[in-house]
Amino acid sequence: MSEINYQQLAENSQPFERIYRWRGDDPAKADAIRLGEEALKAGRVAAVLLAGGMATRLGNDFPKGLYPIGFNGESFFEIFAAKIHALQNKFGRFVPLYIMTSDATDDQTQAFFHEKDFFGLPEQDVIFFKQGVQGAVDIDTGKTLYSAPGVPAVSPDGHGGVLSALKKFRLLDDMKQCGIEMVCTFQVDNPLIPLADPELIGYCLYDEAEIATLTIRKNSPTEKVGNMVKNNGVVQVIEYSDLPLSCAQKTNPDGSLAIGLGNIAIHVFRLDFLARILANEDFSLPFHTVKKKVPYIDQNGVLIHPTQPNAFKKEKFIFDVFPFAKKIAIVEGDRRLCFSALKNAPNSPDENERSVRADMKASGLF
Ligand code: UTP
């Protein structure tokens, strides 16, 4: 696959014709909520939690979902389970929760759910599946890294690995058999997540779109979120690291950022859309090269846990599926109500435990 020309995509990006206002006064709001609620009541919605990441920036020796982010020490997983209970109370159905783990997170994640009795969720409605892996090379030498003599060091293949994992384990077929039509995906590190949110699901249905994506206004040209762009009707996300500064800084006549909507990885997919693209044997997402901390053995066979990124590896990103959709509903939310991510260790300047707790408090949701 040829390299994506991000400069060109960003330079030629056009404004979105329609942006739905989530939790705002959108003219389609009442219809969207009605449609979303109907889908939830009818059991047509599943949630997919992307929880396979290594969380190297956070640096704990347990998966991020176990992190006690809540004011009473609740883990992310417990917070998400509470949201599913709230949906069940309101709509009379448990939204099945598919959890993507990886070699790095699977054992501890599954053990935690068992230890906590699945937080009261029906065990059959919590389905674990593991994503694939990618090798890594040394940043300086370009040589393959090994985790043991003769064993290449591997780590998860990026959150976009969810598509091949869904296919490998035939999970879309399982979902379809259970009457699922809408698949809501979200990340493990955002406690504000509107999980299987009726209004967001509803905008996808109302718009007759194949995907609805919840975005936020970026708070600076270089905020570390994906950037929503549109070229010839095709919606795409450009990762912050790939967005040329000159494009990031471009403004509209009113002073707002020309590329101003940030991707926060909260999406709704039609199951039929995912099934259609995955049915194509040639379908694959492009790889991005990322710098990561990958444990490796040195020339003496000693296992080293690097404190700085030491490796290049290839990852797939879930948003690269956007250009395959015939139509995407772009939804804009107030970040205070839907986004705060735990990325970094407590002593780092941002996206840490302190900032996330402050955002949780300010949201009024906790
Ligand atoms: P991040 O981009 O924060 O990556 O993941 P990460 O690997 O967890 O953390 P760092 O970069 O090493 O510090 C965003 C979301 O995507 C999931 C994560 O679990 C998180 O929910 N993810 C990421 C996966 O499920 N698999 C992956 O391979 C990567």
Write up what this structure looks like:
There is one protein chain. The protein is α/β, with parallel strands linked by helices. It contains 11 helices and 18 strands. Strands 1, 2, 3, 4, 9, 10, 11, 12, 13 and 18 form a 10-stranded mixed β-sheet that branches. A hairpin with a 2-residue loop joins β6 and β7. The longest helix has 16 residues. The chain is globular. 43% of the residues are buried. The mean pLDDT is 97. The site of uridine 5'-triphosphate has 22 residues, from loops.
Topology:
Layout: H1 6-11, E1 20-21, H2 29-41, E2 45-50, H3 76-91, E3 97-101, H4 106-115, E4 126-130, E5 133-138, E6 146-148, E7 151-152, E8 154-156, H5 161-168, H6 171-177, E9 182-187, H7 198-206, E10 211-217, E11 226-231, E12 234-238, H8 245-248, E13 261-270, H9 271-279, E14 288-292, E15 296-297, E16 303-304, E17 311-315, E18 328-332, H10 335-338, H11 353-363
Parallel strand pairs: 1-18, 2-3, 2-9, 3-4, 10-18
Antiparallel strand pairs: 5-8, 5-17, 6-7, 9-13, 10-13, 11-12, 11-13, 14-17, 15-16
The chain binds uridine 5'-triphosphate.
